[in-house]
Amino acid sequence: MTEASTEITVNAREPLLKKLLVATRNPGKAREMAAVLADLPLTIVTLEDYPEAPNVEETGSTFEENAVAKAAAYARFTGLWTIADDSGLEVDALNGAPGVFSSRFAPSDPERIAKLLELMKDVPEHKRTARFRCVIAIASPEGQVETCEDTLEGIIASEPRGSNGFGYDPVLYLPEFGKHVAELSPEQKNAISHRGKALRKAKAVLRKKMGLSENGS
Ligand code: ITT
Which CATH class is domain 4-209? Predict the structure, then answer.
């Protein structure tokens, strides 16, 4: 291609498809959500396509409040059907912490994991129960919101293991798989995870509300 070329690539189907905004700035979440939504007859756009979108403060005390606030605000800003995820890790021995503060628990994933393991260092095996919880909020362009929720139960391990996924995945051990979440492939994680399960419920809501057919047309 010469420097002056104005050639552009056009996806012939794209103009026919409605857009869905996946409203997250977390690349780990965005990857997992895009994989589950890939078979919908929609063009998926993300907040990377809307760099001017304002940041929505997570001031709620529940995952549901924060997910609803994010989905409604970004739907209003873009005028698009929008889904937002609010999620986190609930540790029973820490009375549900870090919970809605999971991403603000420490500045980086390794520091968050180190802080969690330090807090848990004297907690015996049978008291290390925990879960990931995910709430997906679906907002219409007019700002009407519905939510779907699910969990993934596990045990806080004594040390991190695995390099897949993101966030606290290396320290949540799943006894029935004999693996930490970060040792699962992306497909295995999406099949059983809090986010995969909540998102499949959200897909059914989207199909109905947006009038999408099952066969991709
Ligand atoms: P957005 O608000 O832009 O979506 P965020 O990372 O700030 O991104 P949350 O406020 O919902 O999102 O925080 C979720 C945090 O919970 C996330 O940063 C991880 O630390 C943790 N978390 C959620 N789901 C997880 C998963 O599947 N595996 C590991 N950690 C997870």
Answer: alpha beta
